[in-house]
Specification:
The structure is a homodimer. Chain A is built from 22 helices and six strands. By secondary structure, chain A is mostly helical. Chain A has three domains: about 5-140, MgtE N-terminal domain-like (MgtE N-terminal fold, Alpha Horseshoe); about 150-270, CBS-domain (Roll), CATH 3.10.580; about 285-454, Orthogonal Bundle (Tetracycline Repressor, domain 2), CATH 1.10.357.20. In chain A, the strands form two sheets. In chain A, strands 1-2-3 form a three-stranded mixed β-sheet. In chain A, strands 4-5-6 form a three-stranded mixed β-sheet. In chain A, helix 3 (about 40-50) crosses helix 5 (about 65-75) and helix 20 (about 355-385) packs antiparallel against helix 21. The longest helix of chain A has about 35 residues, at about 355-385. Chain A is elongated, with a radius of gyration of 29 Å. In chain A, about 50% of the residues are buried. Chains A and B meet through helix 1, helix 3, strand 3, helix 13 and strand 4 of A and helix 1, helix 3, strand 3, helix 13 and strand 4 of B. Chains A, B: Acts as a magnesium transporter. Chains A, B: It is found in: Cell membrane; Membrane. Chains A, B: Its main location: membrane. Chains A, B: It is a multi-pass membrane protein.
Chain lengths: ~450, ~450
């Protein structure tokens, strides 16, 4: 084995900069040569790291044989930006090589006219599979499944299975077993490849198969699917309809996609970004989406300003309050955000239930009290050093304790309430929390000051 | 197949509340009966969703046969909380059933005395494997690998391989192929199980094996490992030393753990939380860690207050400025946070390079200008309606444009600089960004007001 076959060393990774330089030099021959050595996963990575103009140039240089696979590996938004520019015939040709679940994913977002051209061009068999996939909602097992299942009957011997397998040049990716069905196509269990290898050839499939290997109902939510793959160490699993009829299978790589999308959603949702957000999207389309989020937050900001406005007279008399008030709001925001993130993750992992949410709320509020008292002392000390005013020091200390306790309570209550209302806490939790910590922070600090210091 | 064997339906999922209720009722017989029906992955999930006292009670009720597997599936922090209470003999017994990479993971954090007892109790073979794993740094392929590899020589026929496999009762999880080695143990390639099944039995291993199937160098970073598994659709891959000597293998489920830890780190790091943070940790240990984060943010808050303090005279004269100033800071914080999140994710996915970071910076700043102008107009209008003061309206509009552009520039520059300094941007990026948007926001708004309105 030579050094070049061993991965991963930095040098064997596709260099995005090298591609950009070749594009700038318009050295298309060298570029085509380079691209020919990458496989679709790497090509997709490179395309996603290109600004819009360079991305289109590069896409035209990608060898046709790699086009379909590369297309399916791109994020929706990047893929759509390339598809809209493709001639329909080219797109139709690319779809011929796509697998059914990728096709279903893509076709839904296309204009009716192009969609029809694609569907007309498909073989009857593929079109039928596509329609089955599309009959299930997005985000379910039925939409994820692929039809590339190798099935065997339960009443034959392993000898027969082996002869049947030898008719195949190769087995599909992530084939760790064959799906066992009865005469009418009902799922019976899974015959693991390693059992075929380790068992006597005269055994019957039904004796060797794992009838405990559960199938996934096509209407199952994809997050449940991911959970079960992890728990049961599946590499692939059968998908069945409500009558236990075998429809297809879900593979490990589908699950990785689900997990990745879920984590991207949790991370990006907090900032009002879509998880498919294309880093190199054109300026206008990026600005449009982001600006909506700024608008939502502006409402929060004006609400906070309105609260401050109530105490304009107080601020007019003691200007130090204006200087210090952001400290109270900011400490509440930070502490609340910690509780919020933990709670949202706990909900996503199904760790929080009716039985333990009370314990959790008490714990978080207690942490709020402890942190609040500690930092109130520190802040009061620093404020006293700065302004030499005992009244202001005491008021800010009290306000910090109040706001940190409110932040903890809000950090746990907001996601619980949002989930009950079927609103995604990962998306709107942070905005609501900031509203609470700003309002409570300004209100308690300026309110106490008005009451005690004027 | 009966309904109960089909997953996942809500009813077959372990009910955490049911467990909590049985614990409260001290109905330990029923509880033991229930726990017996869960497998280790489910038991780990349940334990992680328990408050500390209940967690310990429950742990004592878990059947011994499941103990070791359950222990390895827990997050570090939860596991450590259980281990410290276990009698050494019990812990030693549990480790006997653990696999080497889990054991390596755990043993490092144990006190020397317990560690010795465990190591003395291991078989020579396992201890040797453990030492090999521990000789590699945490976060490398060598630490992740397990020794459960089935190897074959390259100069035998498939016939021989099949006979050899039939000596095994079962193959280890995620065995999609056998590792091919030469006489001296050097890695030659992978013999996929499906090739064994589909090829003629008289073929030699070296004719059928995939010599292109790359091995992973033991010193490779785990994130690279995950990347390659995804790109090449691996289910398992060989790990070799620098001489190409086969040391072990990495499996798909290791990769899922890496991906999960990475996404948890990105999500939790922003709030100064550790990715292994135990939702149900005791109050004191949680408060300790979180309070450090509040302290760091307090520095930022005082810095912002100090900036405001410079303009105390201005605030004293125009109280409306105090009312409005949080709006400028908050809009900058939100916009900057969007750019920061996108940039950190782009860096994590290796999408941002020298060649495209310039394009990206221009794009983000341009978005900042567009959003800035749009929202400056809206805010100026609202402020005019509120205070009927053209001067203040113009000043806040200008400050918002300045702060949104600064936020975009900071959102992209901060993570790039931090990465070059080898500081994790997911951890400290948000704090630094807030400092910038607060300081620039207050400074530009109050500075412009001082200059033009006094």
């Amino acid at each position: 084995m030579t050094e070049s076959e061993r991965i991963p060393t930095e040098s064997t990774k596709p260099s995005i900069d090298e591609v950009i330089i070749l594009l700038q030099q318009a050295d298309f021959d060298q570029l085509k040569f380079l691209l020919n050595h990458f496989h679709p996963g790497q090509l997709a990575d490179i395309l996603e790291a290109m600004p819009p103009k360079e991305r289109k140039q590069l896409w035209d240089l990608i060898p046709e044989s790699q086009g379909a696979d590369t297309l399916t590996l791109l994020h929706d938004e990047v893929r759509n930006s390339l598809i809209v520019e493709m001639p329909t015939e080219e797109l139709v040709a690319a779809t011929e090589q796509m697998n059914v679940s990728d096709l279903a994913d893509m076709i839904e977002e296309l204009p009716e006219r192009i969609r029809q051209s694609i569907e007309e061009n498909l073989s009857d068999e593929i079109r039928e599979h596509l329609e089955t996939n599309l009959s299930f909602e997005e985000g379910t097992a039925g939409r994820l499944m692929s039809p590339d299942v190798i099935t065997v009957r339960n009443d034959v011997t392993l000898e027969v299975v082996l002869r049947y397998l030898q008719l195949h040049e190769d087995l599909p990716d992530y084939t760790d077993g064959l799906m066992v069905i009865d005469r009418s196509g009902l799922y019976q269990g899974k015959l693991l490849l390693n059992k075929v290898l380790t068992h006597d050839k005269t055994s019957l499939v039904k004796e060797v198969m794992n009838s405990q290997h559960p199938a996934i109902l096509a209407t199952t939510d994809e997050h449940e699917v991911a959970h079960f793959f992890e728990q049961f160490h599946f590499v692939s699993a059968a998908v069945v309809d409500e009558n236990n009829y075998l429809l297809g299978r879900i593979k490990m790589d589908d699950v990785i996609c689900i997990l990745r999308a879920k984590s991207d959603h949790a991370l990006m949702g907090r900032d009002g970004l879509h998880e498919e957000e294309d880093l190199f999207a054109p300026v206008i389309s990026s600005a449009k989406r982001r600006t909506v989020w700024l608008g939502i937050n502006l409402v929060t900001a004006f609400l906070a300003a309105w609260v401050i406005g109530i105490f304009a007279d107080t601020l007019d008399k003691i200007v130090a309050l204006a200087v210090l008030m952001p400290i109270v709001a900011s400490m509440g925001g930070i502490a609340g955000s910690q509780t919020l993130t933990l709670t949202i993750r706990g909900l996503a992992l199904d760790q929080i239930t009716n039985g333990n949410s009370g314990w959790l709320a008490r714990k978080e509020v207690l942490i709020g009290i402890i942190s609040g008292l500690l930092w109130a002392l520190v802040v009061a000390g620093m404020v006293w050093l700065w302004f030499q005013d005992t009244g202001i020091s005491l008021v800010i200390a009290a306000a910090i304790v109040i706001n940190l306790v409110a932040a903890a309570a809000a950090g746990i209550a907001i996601p619980l309430i949002l989930q009950r209302l079927n609103i995604d806490p990962a998306l709107s939790g942070a905005v609501i929390l900031t509203t609470v910590t700003d309002v409570v922070g300004f209100m308690s600090f300026l309110g106490l000051a008005t009451y005690y210091l004027l």
